[in-house]
Amino acid sequence: MPELPDVEQARKLLHERCVGRKLTQVRAASDSIVFAGATDLESRLRGRKMVGSGRRGKQFWLEFSKQLVLFVHFGMTGQVHVKGESASHYRKIEVDVGADWPPQYTKLELQFGQLQVAFTDPRRLGRIRLYEGVASESPIVSKLGFDPVIDPPSPQAFAEMVMRRKMPVKALLLKQEFSAGVGNWIADEVLFRSSIHPAQLASTLTQVQTNELLRQLKDVCGTAVAANADSRLFPKEWLFHYRWAKGRKQPAQMPDGRAIEFVTFSSSLR
After folding, report:
1. Number of domains in the chain
2. What does the pLDDT read at residue 224?
3. Both 118 and 44 in a single domain?
4. Active site residues
5. Which one, 30, 33, 157, 197, has least CB within 10 Å?
């Protein structure tokens, strides 16, 4: 699933290419799962000028004239394509654009004059919604927790937030109402670098542990965003490069020979 850095890469790309441009054509697939009314979306967006963008966690949005906001959530396999440019670096995306346009699995196509943008979603778990008003005031955004890049809490506030939760610390990090944008690989990376077992109850962490957890959370997310979500540029010592070997014949291990163990545990929320 695309996580915070991948979503920020998409937002940044569209912001740089589309702000100040007028939407000349909008085509939305008839998909009631992805959209809440494709025809309505087309008519309301067409002719608007893109004036800005934003992101919180895995949710990003495009701002258009007269306070119309287009919210986009990638789900498991969502992706943004700009015609004539290479796609994002997310390692599990399944769409091959080739010479065809719009790409296969396109759910929404936006045309800003000669500039063409497509949102694809093979598994149909993404969501595209329109909202009138200020994006930050939308329930889509207001229900989310802190963003590790935009507004991380202070060490003391973070410790208090963590220690009052009687649930596995990884499950807490994955809870979008707690830390928006964190998915499996970020949670694993942060916990690995913090030397904290993912199944340890959050309420049992010490102040020293929560301080390190917050530091690593900000560092991992910030580093991945600075690399524009291109995993080829992630630090070579990161667990990220070696954690995808589950199910292969050769056991997963770090470069120094340490074995990587895949564990399953209850993630009940309390």
Report:
1. 2
2. 98
3. yes
4. 2-3, 58
5. 30
